[in-house]
Amino acid sequence: MTEFDEETLERLRKAGLRPTRQRRELAHLLFSECTEAMTAEGLHGFALRHGVKVSLATVYGTLHSFCDAGMVREVSIDSRRYFDTNSDNQQYFYYEDDKRLVGVTAAETGFRNVPIPPEGLKVSRIDVVVRLKRDNHKI
Question: Which domain range does residue 41 map to?
């Protein structure tokens, strides 16, 4: 078994997930090959290009299993769901023209302070999305 197989198997076992072939292959792609948050359709195409034979339904199911296990987080933008391997509080640039979601640092967005929630509530997580669009007036 290769080194990535051991690392991927350990990640899945730690999350309490059975390491099926599809989960192993998709987890390897997500955690070792992807550089930005992906939609299920994006991961499906990425998997096919990397020789992973898997259905779109399996990708959806696997991503939701990963999400339930805390391995990835789901971020919804304009009724599209993106899955990010960084499960900490996150800040993003959303490239509207390309429909891409890319994680950035607090220094890049300037958002640092968390508002105080109303009594009896706590902040469960923070997602800051800075939407970017091409400026057609600047060439």
Answer: 3-83
Residues 14 and 71 in one domain: yes
List phi, psi (to 5°) of 129: -120, 120
For the chain, give the mean pLDDT.
86
What percent of the chain is modeled with pLDDT above 90?
Answer: 42
10 and 36, same domain (yes or no): yes
Distance CA 53, CA 105 (A): 34
Asked if 27 contacts 66 with a C-beta cutoff of 8 angstroms, the reply is yes
Query: Which pTM value belongs to this model?
Result: 0.78
- Strand pairing partners for 92? 103, 129
Query: Could you tell me how far CA 38 lies from the centroid of its own chain?
Result: 6
